[in-house]
Design brief:
It comes from Shinella lacus. The chain is of the alpha+beta class and 438 residues long. It folds into three domains: 180 residues, Alpha-Beta Plaits, CATH 3.30.70; 54 residues, DNA polymerase, domain 1; 175 residues, Dna Ligase, domain 1 (2-Layer Sandwich), CATH 3.30.1490.100. Helices cover 39% and strands 20% of the residues. The chain has 15 helices and 16 strands. It has a five-stranded mixed β-sheet. A four-stranded antiparallel β-sheet has the order 11-14-12-13, covered by helices on one side. A hairpin with a 5-residue loop joins strand 15 and strand 16. The longest helix has 21 residues.
Length: 438
């Protein structure tokens, strides 16, 4: 495996992306503490993103609104706008592309680039050109931190450390860290173990049981030992990444399609939650068809008063709304049996899983419903074509009444790039691909 002798990767992370986009779009919010919330009109949810001013006052992401207002009484709560963030993401990428080609953008607020000779020779100039392009052509309120290193993993860690250093120096939004191979591993060894991507809370415990408590101790392990601790090849891959090898992540495979939503107070009944879940699952089914997959099961998850409820329903390898929504109705019938007196539901999630590519479909011989499936697939093809043509849900199987705000499934995404779908009021909004395996 090749080990670069110079920096080869740039990792860029936008600072407080969702709140900073709100400030850039609305001059009234600039310089003020801003907290982005799921929807307006209630203090019973959480701040899901906050501006640098709010962070300076002690507000944190995923902090209950009431607690955030106690910490920062002047906090301005702004309902999320998924389509605004998607459009900002696309505009920012266009500006960055005028300076350097983007290699990968795996989420809405970060990206990586492969450096050419000029970028390797003068990374400070390259970073300045990127930030100038954004400030000049989009605005000064959307800022970024940038890390340079031999591979993506190290560049990502460097970026985070550069952001933290800029915050300590009082220049938040101007983070920059350059980790040349000749300087390694000294800057890496100063990083806390919990700040290494791939080392989560459960892995911290597993490493502790193997007497590994610091990044220096992790770095000193052998590759095979890390593979044994992780119990898979990811441990060994991490070893090579931390030691500066040019390692690429394997291509991800689609594992499922899904949506989740925190429910507004008026929608926290079984009836309200089931209606919203129907809209979410319809959106997931549209993406399933658009990406040429069939599903073999539906999963319903609820966050309820006393914990959670989960249920799965087998599908006969389908992708049409009639079959998928029929399975969802069966799952809700189970919910009603389990909670005959009703239950308060705070969050609902739906997922289509056990995927089959359209050209690899395996039909159960005992189902004998191919004729019905073909009929409903033709119906859905016509419906999808109409909705796509008019950029809105003008035809649907059953009534289409999105909750307040018009977003059936639109939400802030921290781990993926949203794509344009359609909402019930004719606006474009985010689609949530759900969890991917690989």
């Amino acid at each position: 495996m090749r080990k670069p002798d110079d920096i080869e990767r740039l990792y860029l992370d936008f600072d407080g992306f969702f709140a900073s986009v709100e400030q850039q779009a609305d001059p009234r919010l600039r310089g003020r503490p801003v907290g982005v919330v799921p929807f307006a009109g209630t203090d019973r949810t959480a701040v899901i993103a906050c501006s640098k001013e709010a962070k300076a006052a002690g507000v944190k992401n995923v902090m209950p609104i009431r607690e955030a207002k106690q910490v920062c009484p002047d906090l301005i709560l702004v309902p999320q706008k998924p389509d605004l963030y998607r459009r900002a993401h696309n505009a920012l990428l266009c500006e960055i592309e005028t300076v350097i080609a983007i290699d990968t953008a795996k989420s809405i607020d970060d990206l990586t680039c492969v450096l050419d000779e000029s970028g390797q020779r003068d990374p400070e100039l390259l970073a300045a050109r990127i930030k100038t392009a954004i400030a000049t052509n989009i605005g000064t309120y959307i800022t970024s931190s940038i890390g340079f290193a031999a591979n993506r993993q190290l560049a990502k860690i460097a970026c985070k450390q550069g952001k933290e250093e800029s915050r300590r120096l009082g220049s938040y939004g101007n983070g920059l860290a350059i980790w040349r191979p000749s300087d390694m591993p000294a800057p890496l060894l100063r990083v806390a173990l919990k700040d290494i991507p791939g080392v989560g809370a459960s892995m911290i415990g597993r490493l502790a049981r193997n007497r590994v408590f610091t990044t220096a101790e992790l770095y000193a392990l052998e590759a095979k030992h890390m593979r044994k601790i992780w119990n898979n090849v990811n441990g060994e891959r991490l070893w090579y990444a931390l030691h500066g090898y040019a390692i690429q992540a394997p291509p991800q495979k689609r594992g499922m399609f899904g949506h989740g939503r925190v429910l507004p107070p008026e929608g926290r009944t079984i009836a309200g939650a089931s209606e919203i879940s129907r809209l979410l699952l319809t959106k997931a089914a549209r993406r399933l068809r658009r990406e040429n997959f069939y599903a073999g099961g539906v999963w319903l998850w609820l966050s309820v008063t006393d914990g959670s409820w989960m249920g799965k329903h087998h599908l006969a390898v389908v992708n049409d709304d009639q079959a998928i929504l029929s399975a969802l109705r069966s799952l809700w019938a189970r919910v009603r049996r389990d909670y005959p007196r009703g239950v308060t539901i705070f969050r609902v999630g739906v997922t289509l899983y056990d995927l089959s590519p359209a050209d690899e479909r395996q039909i159960d011989m005992l189902d004998n419903d191919d004729a019905d499936r073909r009929k409903w697939e033709k119906v859905n093809s016509a419906v999808d074509a109409l909705n796509t043509r008019y950029s809105g849900t003008i035809v649907s199987l059953g009534e289409w009444k999105p909750p307040a705000g018009g977003h059936a499934g639109g939400k802030i995404s921290y781990t993926r790039i949203p794509s344009a779908g359609t909402s019930g009021d004719g606006k474009l909004e985010d689609d949530d691909p759900g969890t991917r395996s690989g």
